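Write out the 3D structure for:
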Amino acid sequence: MDSFVGITHSKWRELKRTKGNSIDLPYWPKALFVSYRSFRNSRMKHKEDAIYGKDIQQTVIERPPIFIIGHWRSGTTLLHNYLSLDLQFAFPSVMDVLFANSCLILESKINQKMGAPKIEKRPMDNVQISYRSPGEDEFALAILSLCSPLLAWPFPRSESFYDRYLTFKDVSENEVEKWKTSVLYYFKKLTLKYKKQLLLKSPTHTARIQLLSELFPGAKFINIHRNPIHVYQSTLKLHKTAVNSSALQKPLSLNQKKNNIISRYREMYDAFFREKKLLSDDHFIDISFEGFEKDAVGQIANIYEKLGLNGFTQAQDEFVKMQKKNANYRKNIYEELSLWERTEIRDKWKACFNYWNYNV
């Protein structure tokens, strides 16, 4: 699935005109397809705005969202898939995030055209996914605001420019407001569509606790962490597969990818440790991926208790079913790290090794 297939023509034009975002010749066919889709997306957006624009604007998010956070490949998708089984929550589907500009009117058209959802496997692991699966809201925010680290996927030469939007530390106030406006618009749209409390997951939000808490006072955060060595290995595969397949420029060298993964992880968790102190005990919980693998249902029960959430008993049977279904799941096998990689990770990620008691 192309991550940016739902972008409108005006945003696509703005993106292409940004300094450093020239499209390399081998990727022109892919870019032409995105251009073609962008005209259709613009027409659909205008239609949706005409029907629902006023309703979106007037929608009130009465119950603050629950955010699942954690670095890429730390288990955020697994946790999101479990908690989304609780019918009291709403989550954006893959279709909602890919077609953020028209998701209110598009789903019925897709259902009529495609029928049962097509099941695929993600390129970086064996997780099954369809357009109805829980999606990552950052993909929607990327095409709505153009303020996202994910925009370095198609434009890897601009990675340092887009990485600023991980923490928004060195970003102008105008850009921060632009992003906030997109967040409110999109979350209102989801609230209008589903009329439930939002359950959201995006690794990028790990470094945005303060911004999200300002937008949604009372929001709750579930952080899932994993052995940093395994996170590094799995993130590197993510960049070799899904990230490379989204590129419109020659991908970065393997050494560049490795260095950027290491520095981005450090930046993310520097912000996380600084900002999580702003949250009260009943608005934040930290769990381990390893513990979740061993006893997902027990960990979920702990989440509900710590955050003061109701409804665990009603959803427990569904959690148990998924735990049984996942019992035989086979994880990826990774190559051993080089001495350089292990040394760099040990030195630059030392705070995380120490905080979560992982061995190097």
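DSSP finds 16 helices and seven strands in the chain.
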